[in-house]
Amino acid sequence: MDRKLSTKCSIRVRFSDVDAMGIVWHGNYIKYLEDGREAFGTEHGMTYVQIYHNGYLTPIVSSSMEHKSPVRYGDELEIITNLIDCKAAKIIHHYSINNLTTGKLAAVAKTMQVFTNSEGELQMYAPEFYLSWKNEAKWEDL
Asked: Is 123 helix (H, G, I), strand (E, B) or coil?
C-alpha cells in the first residue's frame, strides 16, 4: 500500500528572493523546499538535529522542480511537503508550492535524500531509529 505523511507551512516572499523583474529567482525555490522539510521534521518529530544525534546525515542526492506560475515579492506561499514511504534507505519528499495570493499552483518538486554515517559513508539500510519512527508515524493512504 502506498502511503505518505504531510505537512503545510506558509511563507511570505522576501524582497531578497526576487530578481530585477520582481519575480522570485528560480534558485530560491530550493530554499522554500528546505522550509518545507524543516516544518515537516518539526511537526512529525524527525528533525535534522535528531538524525544527526543518532549518528547520521541525510544529504540530498536528487532534486527536480517544475515551475507552473510566477511568484512575486510579497506573495504568500503555502508549501505542502509529503514524505513518500519508501522501503529503501532513502527519504523522498514531494512538494506543492501554492501561491495563496494568486490562487495558482507555483511549482511542484521532488527531492531524494540518502543516509550516510557521520564520516559520509553511504548506508545501504535505513537506520533502526528511522525505521522505528516510520512504524510509529500516522501515515495517510495515497
From this structure: coil
Question: Where along the chain do its domains lie?
Answer: 3-141
Q: What is the DSSP letter of 88?
A: S
CB atoms within 10 A of CB 45: 10
Cell of 75: 506573495
Task: Tell whether the model's pLDDT for residue 142 goes beyond 90.
Answer: no
Do 88 and 51 contact (CB within 8 A), yes or no? Answer: no
Burial of 37 (C-beta count, 10 Å sphere; 0-12/13-18/19+):
buried
Using CA atoms, how far apart are residues 83 and 61, in angstroms rounded to an integer?
16
The mean pLDDT of the chain is 95
Let me know: does 125 contact 89? Beta carbons within 8 Å: yes
- The cell numbers describing 98, all together, are 501554492
pTM: 0.93
Phi, psi of 91 (to 5 degrees): -120, 115
CATH topology of domain 3-141: Thiol Ester Dehydrase; Chain A (3.10.129)
Which cell goes with 96? Answer: 506543492
